[in-house]
Hints:
Oligomer: single chain
Largest sheet: 4 strands, antiparallel
Strand content: 15-25%
Distance between the termini: 65 Å
Number of strands: 6
Low-confidence stretches: none
CATH class of the domain at 2-76: Alpha Beta
Mean pLDDT: 85
Radius of gyration: 23 Å
Amino acid sequence: MNIYVGNISHSSTEDGMKQLFEQFGVVSTVKIIKDKFTGSSRGFAFVEMPSADEAKKAIENLNGVEFDGRTLRINEARPVEARGDRDSRGPRPQRSGGFGGPRGGGDRNRRF
């Protein structure tokens, strides 16, 4: 079972989180999600536990517990939803060329 762990400290490590969850059973993987530009933690992680019973026990016992100075928010991870082309807001309108429009060039938008 895949578990979402939110509100983690930026100083938390994958090894530390693994030790925390191993109190309740076998942990397959721990992945702290990091910013792709800075490499710093984004404040959440995913923990994979092969046994659903052990994972549920970990969720029940660790949700709301303080770890590395932060109160953890833990629940079963939701499956990733399809993102489409760019985002979930739907297709973007096509723009015609030129500089017209409300911010476009031209003397009507210039202040003297």
